[in-house]
């Protein structure tokens, strides 16, 4: 009972510390602001497409031409979340890095750790409290982001989300929290292992830029269909089915390209959440269970990375004793 | 002048002692080499895919096939990934270099010591800027040399005289662009109370400049600018984007960078001449210079307010 009380006390302290921290609050409001902006921009972009469609439709009718080839823009409210998800990938990861860095840096900088450990508390309990506290913060951040999204879509956009769509949003929320927590753990681990605090922060940023921005970009750049605006296969009049048959001859290249993308945890998160929210068109109108089954690999990547990092960070903190040498 | 040179010299020496600087420069150089290799692999695979498509379509009885669109790519198209790497890694590296430059001296007390000497504030800042500029110029020049050599070694289309001029202009512009982020790092390293805040705030601004402003101006998703093919995509239609473009476009430095970069390193053969590109984008270049001068003046102002006696830097 006493152990649980100790862990919960540290959890509570982590939570209140974060709410008092300027860096955390700056990033939180920045992220929430960007969520609102990206949904607004997404809806305006869609409105623009509808207007362009209507104009083209009127022109073709007026000229007496066929409207057969005119593609009608379809509205899927969850597709408006694309920008917000991309911001969670980028800014959310920075926020998680900030939390991971601060959770260790405040103890190292203020030399409070030595003081805490003069009390009858186990190192593992102290650190578990920190992990729980930050898990709660990250869950609150993602909940705040997704709640604002639902509020904007429902009350400002006037779109009533279906129950199945709310379940998809809730599932995306959980995976988003897992994704952010991975970056939190990575940053915590780096800050624990590296003696110099500023260097630890810089190295965390290097990891962030490589895995969040560079590696997924390399995978996209290597996609043969991405070489020409509008699509390479489209430019040479090859259909989607035909392109799949042709690309079978280049399985080695495609495997290498896929392997590069697999390195990035961001890509796994993106594939899973884009499928859940129907941002990837082929998953629109599919059930959550179907999507989760189809994207099981992405889900396993995320959860296994999370577990490995939890164990490694806990081991580093309790056994390696690096932090005590500061 | 001598004082500025001494500070610049000390800055260069200190930067070359920093392991983090070497880490970032190495990542930057490796990515430049990788970008040439990626460009070559993708180019040759896409050509092979085209040949396989032609064979397949012939088997299907289709004989009217458009020409290979990739063959018309100019030599500079294979350099387009560099725009993304300078936009991302170059800017982050510059922020960190600028940040380390002042934070290091504030923490060690060297800055306080400098204030006891008859050195003017402008000399301190100019010395630091000169030192940082030399280092950034060296890194950018090295990446330019590496890119050109790797393009010569790989069986890609070879660069002509005009291509080389475009490349030199592109790398010079890139140098000015990342210098701006070094200034940002310097500015917050002077003003911030804590080391982490001095790094987080410029990173936040960098994210705003690189992802938020372009999204508001073009309506494209935040990562659309990171794809060398879609980076010069058209702006979304509608009054909102037209309005945002009129307000934000002049100051959207990140968007200007990818836009000018993609014009200087074009993906299509029917591109504009170098003079036309520069004339068309003269306002963007003027904005960049004004921002650089403005940041310098802000640094002067902040350093004048600097309290050398009570200065403490928290973690």
Could you walk me through the main structural features you see in this protein, from its secondary elements to its overall organization?
The complex is a heterodimer of chains A (326) and B (315). Chain A is elongated, with a radius of gyration of 23 Å. In chain A, helix 2 (22-62) runs parallel beside helix 5. With 326 residues, chain A is an all-alpha fold. Chain A has helices at 2-20, 22-62, 82-110, 112-116, 123-156, 163-193, 197-222, 232-235, 240-247, 251-263, 265-276, 288-294, 296-320. The model of chain A has no long low-confidence stretch (mean pLDDT 85). Chain B has 315 residues and is mainly α. Chain B has one domain (2-36, 75-305). Chain B contains 11 helices and no strands. The chains are: A mainly alpha (326), B mainly alpha (315). At the A-B interface, helix 2, helix 3, helix 7, helix 8 and helix 9 of A face helix 2, helix 3 and helix 7 of B.
Written as H for each helix and E for each strand, in order along the chain, the element string of chain A is HHHHHHHHHHHHH
Main beta sheet of chain B: none
**Helix and strand string of chain B, N-terminal first?**
HHHHHHHHHHH
Overall tally of domains of chain A: 1
What is the distance, rounded to the nearest whole angstrom, between the alpha carbons of the first and last residues of chain A? 32 Å
Low-pLDDT parts of chain A are none
> What is the gyration radius of chain A calculated from CA atoms?
23 Å
Give the % helix of chain A.
over 70%
Unreliable segments of chain B (pLDDT under 50, ≥5 consecutive)? none
Helix content of chain B: over 70%
Global geometry of chain A: elongated
CA-based gyration radius of chain B: 22 Å
Contiguous helical run count of chain B: 11
